[in-house]
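note to self — DONT lose this again. spent like an hour looking for the file last time. sequence + predicted structure for the chain T wanted, 195 res
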Amino acid sequence: MTVTDALIDDYLDRLARAAAGLPGSRRAELTAEIREHIEVALAEGPDRDEAAVRTLLDRLGDPEDIAREAGAPAPALGGPPARRSVPAFELVTVLLLLLGGIVLPVLGWVVGVVLLWASARWSVRDKLLGTLVFPGGLAVAAWWLFFASGSSTTCDPTGVCETSGTSVEVSGAIVLVGVVGSLAVCAHLIRRARA
């Protein structure tokens, strides 16, 4: 089974679960209609790669919305909405992107990037975000905070002093942007892994 087949099967499984309140024949008919629509759209398109399948499924919309439009009852309002868990592979990937550079300098983050690109759960856009937004994760912010942010003052014998390096305010801003950016990207990846 290819990655694209897995994406389509997962989408159709979600549709079948969302349409569970429909009569069996209507649920089977709805699933067959959507499967046929997907196959026709992919056959007419130039590509059948992962990006093309993800784009098509995004255009179709949430399976839950399709099931509701077909007459499936909405989920009960009494309890909290069901939360989807993040699969272990994707959770390890996000943790390595965020903290891998601290635990295993450089290598930990690189392993996280390799796992990110190996996963079928994220789109190419998500993978580029995870790779390019603050490479190294929190390790870069920690390195900047502890090693690169210092400023030093040197004075010559005549009493003229010069300060070199980065001011505390600039260093703090760089560290803050690095931490917030890394956390935001990881939160985005976790949210997408749940979807």
